Amino acid sequence: MRWNTPWPESRLITDSSKVNSGDAAASTLGEMPWASASYDPFRMGECTKPEILVAVAEECLRVGASEVTIGDGSQMPRFDWSLATTLDRSTNLAREADRLSARYGRTVRLACLDVDTAAWLEVPTAISLGRVAISIEGDGSRVSGRLAFDLGPAAASVTAGLLPVPEGFAAAAAQAPLAAQWNLDLLVVRAWLQPCLHAIDEDLGRLDRFGVRSGRAVLQAFDPDDKSGAGAVVLDLAHQKFFASQLDELPMRSTLERRRTFGPHAGHSISIPFVATLDYVLTDKLAMAAVGDGLLAKVVGSGKTEPGPVASIDILPPAMSAEAWRTLLGALDRRDADVIVERLLRWREGHIAVTIEGTSLLVAATGVRR
């Protein structure tokens, strides 16, 4: 028995009489992909406890399953199974899978089903990449596709160019209507592209004005009627000149501003009467800003960081009203906003992630219809 389901769903084998000498699978992880040092979905009751999964896996092995797979579908290309800890924190799914495999002499496999189940089709190519492969699957309500490029030794340089993400960002973005990340250092990207750009007489040096190296943004809420909302932006910087100049343009800033601390970062809050309170941190290496009660502090957490994807976009259309989406698209001067919103709201969620897996650059996209 094997399921490949959207991550909000949970299903378990509950009747051991259904297991024979074939494979068995449990698909139950829910919020597990966003688990981090500061966000424990197991303790918060947002996904099945590892203790239950381990007990089910052992029962399947006891009654004769030749292999047990524990996994679920998500927009994440890989899960960190060591973060799936038991309530007493004494062990985790990765350790228990190894223990059960050794005890029963049969494999307990941990799988991200979006990546580990669908077949790959290798595509012939004459370009310099080693291999290109594609995988597409779907049913009546869900579709996913993946494209993999074999970068060979160059994958290491991409990984080295990734800048880390604040430890609280993933939790802040987990159920947000819209979240996006670009974590590959733009200074590194510019150096890679410069020979090609020089050949067509283009130069990215003008980007130096802004000093942005990478960025993440999350929109948690937006109400166009009372013009309120919550969201955060986190940027890695080469310098702070541009953003410091923008702050200097704020009228009565010295009167409205007060000092704050967010984790280890010294920052400020600017309370704009009848509008919003803006929390921010600005240094030569970092710019962070948020609107929303305590949101910046949650994103920063203790100040630690964790690895992130090369890039990602996550959207949950039903999490925001149609009018809110129209207002956002209107701000982008999209005259076809009504059509876009009508089609957008046909979907429950959509995810695109670009990651490095071994020596491959993986582009994964998933959409779930309502």
Please provide a written account of the structure.
The chain has about 375 residues and is an alpha+beta fold. It folds into two domains: about 15-115, no CATH class; about 130-205 and about 210-230 and about 295-370, no CATH class. It has eleven helices and 18 strands. The protein has helices at about 50-60, 95-105, 115, 155-160, 170-175, 185-200, 240-250, 255, 295-300, 320-330, 335-345; strands at about 25, 65-70, 105-110, 120-125, 130-140, 140-150, 165, 180, 210-225, 230-235, 255-260, 265-270, 275-280, 285-290, 305, 310-315, 345-355, 360-370. The strands form three sheets. Strands 4-5-6-18-17-16-8-9-10-14-13-12-11 form a 13-stranded antiparallel β-sheet. It has a three-stranded parallel β-sheet with strand order 1-2-3. Helix 1 (about 50-60) runs parallel beside helix 2 and helix 10 (about 320-330) packs across helix 11. The chain is globular. Residues about 1-20 have low confidence and may be disordered.
For the structure shown, list the relevant keywords:
370 residues, single chain, 18 strands, 11 helices, alpha+beta
Structure summary:
With 370 residues, this protein is of the alpha+beta class. It has eleven helices and 18 strands.
Strand order of the largest sheet: 4-5-6-18-17-16-8-9-10-14-13-12-11
Shape annotation? globular
Look at the structure and give the mean pLDDT.
82
Number of strands: 18
Question: In percent, how helical is the residue content?
Answer: 10-25%
Question: Mind describing the biggest β-sheet?
Answer: 13 strands, antiparallel
Write the H/E string, N to C: EHEHEHEEEHEHEHEEHHEEEEHEEHHEE
Number of domains: 2
Name the assembly state: single chain
* Percent of residues in beta strands: 25-35%
What is the CA-atom radius of gyration, in angstroms?
A: 23 Å
Which structural class best describes the helix and strand composition? alpha+beta
Low-pLDDT residue intervals, each spanning 5 or more residues: 1-21
Number of helices: 11
Distance between the termini: 25 Å
